[in-house]
Amino acid sequence: MGCSLSTSVDVDQIRRIPKNVGELAVFVPGLRIPKPVNFSQSLGDNLSKSLVERLSGLRTQVVVMASQEAQTAVKPRRKAATQHGGSMLSDLQQSLEDYLPVLLGLVKEGSKLQNSVKFVWVNQEDDIEETAMSNAWYEVLSVLHLMAMVSFSQANLSLLPKTSSDGYQQTDESKRTSVDVFLKGAGYLGFALNHVLPQLPSELRKELPVDLSEGVLQALCQQALGQSGDIQLGLAIDCTKATLAVKRRLACEMVKYWHQAYDNIVKLPLTSGWGEKHQLYVKWKYAEAQAAAYYYHGIILDEGNTEKSHLMAVSALRTAEQFLKESNKECEAFHTTRPVSKNPPIWGTMKYLSEKIAKDTSIKGRINQDLYSHERIVETAPVLPDFSVALKPDDYQLPPNDPLWN
């Protein structure tokens, strides 16, 4: 139990909001961290010594590694990425995957041990410092949430541009890898929403911290899909074979992901530093997605041969420019909200669109005003095309119970 005692002080320090977290390509809410549990006291009379020791050992490992990663996560991100190269995150993910099959024995059908252990986790987006529940499904939900947040952190490290002699570099391979990681994280969240959350009694669900509320879990799941769509659009922009129609569809799909994330998170009482920052991040990315979608919609409308299509194109491009300005404001608000962060060198979708939107809006507007009277320019934005979304969370299933339970 020495490891548990040695981490108690560290866990208590994790609630402190840092002043600066450096560069962020992906926002990851402050990690929820488990506090030590004495399984011998709770389960010693009901389980074999070997099973109790295995539960205790695996969870202690998660406590120690999660505490260490949380403290690394609040340091400037580029320095952390250089020092650890993501290996600490991979080790934490593996520890969670090792712990889960043993934990699941407490919730197997017919088990009388489901409510025997009080599990305590430190919250980050909730004003309440920590949440304790004597229900093993709460522990399963917390583990899946942490697995998803570790996936987000891995994607963040993958997307932060690497320093080279030519400046900051990002490879297509790292971008595609990050999409796979996002969809994997979305799979954990989707399973938690559909299969774990319903296992908790209604009175306990009301006591869950905001971090684990249905709205936050939904928003995080949609964020993963939105970030994946953003990366796919960036890859399409760099691909000479990708048509305007393909880019518009990707941008319109991205709007749907971020719109759902926005709807789920905007009304939640996220008042702490991490929570407020989370809401601002979703607002920023939602505005960015709309700027991209209206830009490509406007460019395609302008290819039409009618006066109406040309006028609607100008309106769409002007709308794109407005959303671009709004996204810049939300971006600044996000990065200046404590913990203070900053953008990595501009990359991907916005590296291209931040220049093209203003330039093309000015050019198309001037041309069409020369052709048609100013009064006939459409002031209301045209409706975006309604495409069905293509990205889905990965299918995830809980692992079988550890053989020790047999």
TrEMBL record:
Q: Where does the record place the BRO1 domain?
A: 25-406
Top-level taxon in the UniProt lineage? Eukaryota
Under the heading CDD domains, the entry gives: BRO1_Alix_like
Which PANTHER family does the protein's record reference? BRO1 DOMAIN-CONTAINING PROTEIN BROX
Name the family. Belongs to the BROX family.
What is the protein named? BRO1 domain-containing protein
